[in-house]
From TrEMBL, chains A, B:
It comes from Quercus rubra. InterPro entries: Aromatic_deC (IPR010977), PyrdxlP-dep_de-COase (IPR002129), PyrdxlP-dep_Trfase (IPR015424), PyrdxlP-dep_Trfase_major (IPR015421), PyrdxlP-dep_Trfase_small (IPR015422), Pyridoxal-P_BS (IPR021115). PROSITE patterns: DDC_GAD_HDC_YDC. The modification N6-(pyridoxal phosphate)lysine is found at residue 263. One of its GO terms (biological process) is carboxylic acid metabolic process. Belongs to the group II decarboxylase family. This is Tyrosine decarboxylase.
Length: 443, 443
């Protein structure tokens, strides 16, 4: 089980049942409860193994972990989406493993290495991110945690770069790491550039900072020896589909990459996947070796202790969740799941384009549609039409959310909920139109 | 349900069944699976509520959350210990709530305020830690996370103090927050002082730092306007028993307090309870208000958004776990559970004291016993007897752990596992003695 054979997983393209079908959840849920109850009934029969070799541990995974989940390898097992994460959570929590270091529960560490390498392979990330290639993956809680580490350096001159569309997680990490807010450069993005990070603006900003004696530290461009991190929290999942892979083509030079499996990859919170080419940089910031965690294996420096790559010392058996997803769905079904959401987003986009009161604000690449209402009378009035449009959109959002029938955030219409079907998208569009009608008739 | 009536909880002292009794777990587990399956079967019947008032939300908790767990309020519900956390985890994960801010899932925030106030009351913490008293509690992942925030200040001169016995979580937080390792003062503790933080040594160290132009920043003593944090990760739980409460008597002047419910309070990872008298200090470091999370309630500043008191933006419904524990066991059973572990530790201590080859190294206050083997021949040899004793203890530990029958860490013998009974302690002691016999006969 040490390497992922994509062609084998492709074969597992059994029928897809509704992933949250209550009866199927009920059936499988009961099997799981019995599985965990049996585990506790027999718990004293298991010896407490002092870890020996990787081989022994892998045998233990084979012997104690895998049989427990084979019930779910049936065709219907490919059914449940969030409940797959949920099922993994039950298994992980039910066995209640704490994996500071490898020794505290070796299979937790081993399984994490395996699934992170599998997922790296599915994403076609460079081999330099592979454990064997001196890189490696680690499961974090969320992006906020995943990017909160830094090599020791003079904080006063360390500069961090992102676009003005960068997730606030970066700003938060900067604050907590003690880097002054004014050292964070949010490069202005434009609609004409699809709200992307503009290389020219970035280069100009960095040049100005270097001339001012500041030290580019975190985000982009090999030229300046900056740590480049790619945050693909949401969209990263789609990159397991060949037709979407090109979106991360340019990041071959990056130092680290994150994808949040709890966002669009069928696990529940928390499950943020971080890969780094050189994990020793993480370890410089995050490693501590207290006396009570010392052991022969750690002292030998031949084993991986995940506590050194993450903020929290205690950590649960998150790999179980991801492992269950990869194993039970297989590449083909995972791709189809993601594609079905993108297809629904395309449908919504079409509906929008057919109503000239609405505008698609940013290009839709995956299953997120950014739109706004922009009725002609406002658009045509020269004075403060932007402010008036913003005000109108705010009212529309409050009106829709206030109805209790559809709920959206202020920035996007996201196709992400596992239970979503086309009929829900069509219904939501009708609700949006009705509220727009009512609002515009009042104005 | 806004205040905890201890005398009412005391009444719920039903019989205690083995907390991990497999058959009882099986029975309750099946009920839970049906409960969650029913929830998904009826999910479309629920309206999506736009949050209105605290009152409405509390009614929703009453209507949608509480009925779901009443099945487990039967006498046998007092049975499961780690599975109580496990059950809370199932409920929390099964409903899959993400609670960035109050609006994203109001009951998650409301329930967290309630349980944190309840637990504060059980611990008899000052009212200044209460939400109504402008203080407040927040559930974090682990201690490492809970203490990782700092007000913006000049990092180069900020000094952090702890004893040399302080958990490495503090050192890790200092590293990540960008405070230089040399700014962390580990005050030397001594056996004669029971390895506690010595006030005189602390005062002398702080005085010297102040004279050198450095700024005392984090740990102890009101005199210097330092932020005082009390980390009661493990022992804090026991302080709900009146006979142990005096251990935290001295901390009335502290600014913040943590207790890890996942350590000794019947929940699984992660569930670290943090209270602060002035949470605005946390918010200065941890708050970000991205556009996509803006809403009327947040803008009004009348509601609590937990994302501002914690590193990660996304957060699961952890309050469910703690709530289930407090509700299902009640104060009396919780105290008895903790006392039973302390009683077992006392037994182990007695066994140790009856064997003159062993020494209890630090006073046993709760259910942890720190001991070492110190056979007379080594003790009496004047030259390097400490090193030889350490070497012997290391060998003993490796020998015991290598047997696969008992597993201990290098610092303590901890009575904490929920399934533990006296017979397990007695058996472990026999294993320790056997390995000591074998080791000493070889030397």
């Amino acid at each position: 089980m040490s390497s992922l054979k994509s062609h084998e997983l492709e074969k597992n393209s059994h029928m897809m049942v509704n992933p949250l079908d209550p009866e199927e959840f009920r059936r499988q849920g009961h099997i799981m409860i019995d599985f965990i109850a049996d585990y506790y009934q027999n718990i004293e029969k298991f010896a407490l193994y002092y870890p020996e070799s990787i081989e022994t541990i892998l045998q233990d995974i084979q012997k104690y972990i895998i049989p427990g989940i084979t019930h779910w390898q049936s065709p219907n097992y490919f059914a449940f989406f969030p409940s797959s994460g949920f099922r993994g959570e039950i298994l992980s929590t039910g066995h209640n493993v704490v994996g500071f270091n490898r020794m505290s529960s070796p299979p937790a560490t081993e399984l994490e290495c395996i699934v992170m390498d599998w997922l790296r392979e599915m994403l076609m990330l460079r081999k330099s991110f592979l454990f064997k290639g001196n890189g490696g993956g680690v499961l974090q809680g969320t992006t906020c945690e995943a990017i909160l580490w830094s090599e020791k350096m003079e904080k006063l001159v360390a500069m961090v770069y992102g676009s003005d569309q960068t997730h606030c997680a970066l700003q938060k990490a900067v604050q907590i790491a003690g880097i002054h807010t004014k050292n964070f450069r949010a490069i202005k993005s434009t609609k004409s550039n699809s709200f992307g990070l503009c290389p020219n603006s970035l280069r100009a900003t960095i040049h100005a900072d270097v001339e001012a004696g500041l030290v580019p530290f975190f985000l982009l461009a090999e030229d300046f020896n900056i740590w480049v991190h790619v945050d693909a929290a949401y969209a990263g999942s789609a990159c397991i589909c060949p037709e979407f892979r090109h979106f991360i083509d340019g990041f071959e030079g990056a130092n680290s990459f994150t994808l949040n499996a709890h966002k669009w990859f069928l696990t529940t919170l928390d499950c943020c996947c971080l890969w780094a080419k050189d994990p020793s940089a993480l370890m410089k910031s995050l490693s501590t070796i207290p006396e009570f965690l010392r052991n022969k294996a750690t002292d030998s420096k031949l084993v991986l202790d995940y506590k050194d790559r993450k903020i929290s010392l205690s950590r649960s058996f998150r790999a179980m969740k991801l492992w269950l997803v990869l194993r039970s769905y297989g590449v083909a079904n995972l791709r189809n799941f993601l594609r079905s959401h993108v297809k629904m987003a395309k449908l919504f986009e079409e509906l929008l384009r057919n109503d000239n009161r609405f505008e698609v604000v940013a290009p839709r690449n995956f299953a997120l549609v950014c739109f706004r209402i922009l009725p002609w009378p406002i658009y045509n009035s020269v004075a403060n039409h932007v402010e008036r449009a913003n005000e109108l959109n705010k009212k529309l959002l409050e009106s829709i959310n206030g109805s209790g029938n559809v709920y959206m955030s202020s920035t996007v219409f996201a196709i992400g909920a596992t239970l979503r079907e086309e009929r829900h998208v069509i219904r939501a569009w009708k609700v949006i139109q009705e509220h727009a009608d009512a609002l515009l008739s009042k104005n």
